[in-house]
Amino acid sequence: MDHHHPMLFDEVAKAAIPIIDTFNSQDISNTVNAFAKMDHHHPMLYDEVARAAIPMIGTFKSQGLANTVNAFAKMDHHHPMLFDEVARAAIPIIGTFKSQGLANTVNAFAKMDYQHPMLFDEVARAAIPIIDTFNSQSLANTVNAFAKMDHPHPILFDEVARAAIPIIDTFNSQSLANT
């Protein structure tokens, strides 16, 4: 979207903060995701979202978990406790993540420089059987996240290479550089 109205987003944040505890997991995820998509950082809103999300993190679906940490990372809003709780909640349901969710999750952890080896191992385990569903950006983001976090996974890297070769012409310059 090309049009961004900061005052509207500030007013939405002002209205949402006092009632954030009434939001369900999808409301929380959608809120921070919308702010991140519009590149509108509202630190108080993000802090309140994290506070409200942590006790209910077990109710988040895979896409909500991925979108939430991705929004925090995009806005460079550090909240280690939220990321720890997202990892804890994601690991048991990692098999429900789609390729983009897996890539976005490890990419968010890498962008924020949050180490979570068990999460990365589980993402690799879940990604390998569905690697052919990853698009060029998801392949590149996944490999880049593992490399940035110095978390080698030779089997995953071999599978990414195998999946990337037939679609290499779909990679843009950034994806090529990140792969």
Topology:
Blueprint: H1 6-16, H2 25-37, H3 43-56, H4 62-74, H5 80-90, H6 99-111, H7 117-127, H8 136-148, H9 154-164, H10 173-178
Helix pairs in contact: 2-4, 3-5, 4-5, 4-6, 6-7, 6-8
Give an overview in words.
The structure is a single chain. With 179 residues, the protein is mostly helical. Helix content is 65%, strand content 0%. Helix 2 packs parallel to helix 4 and helix 4 runs antiparallel to helix 5 (80-90). The longest helix has 14 residues, at 43-56.
In short:
With 179 residues, the protein is an all-alpha fold.
- What's the number of extended β-strand segments? 0
Question: How is the main sheet built?
Answer: none
Percent helix, as a range, is 55-70%
Strand content: under 5%
Radius of gyration: 17 Å
Mean pLDDT: 94
Q: Any idea what the shape is?
A: globular
Counting DSSP H or I runs of 4 or more residues, the number of helices is 10
Order of H and E elements: HHHHHHHHHH
Structural class: mainly alpha
> Which runs of at least 5 residues are low in confidence (pLDDT < 50)?
none
Please describe the structure with a list of short key phrases separated by commas or semicolons:
179 residues, single chain
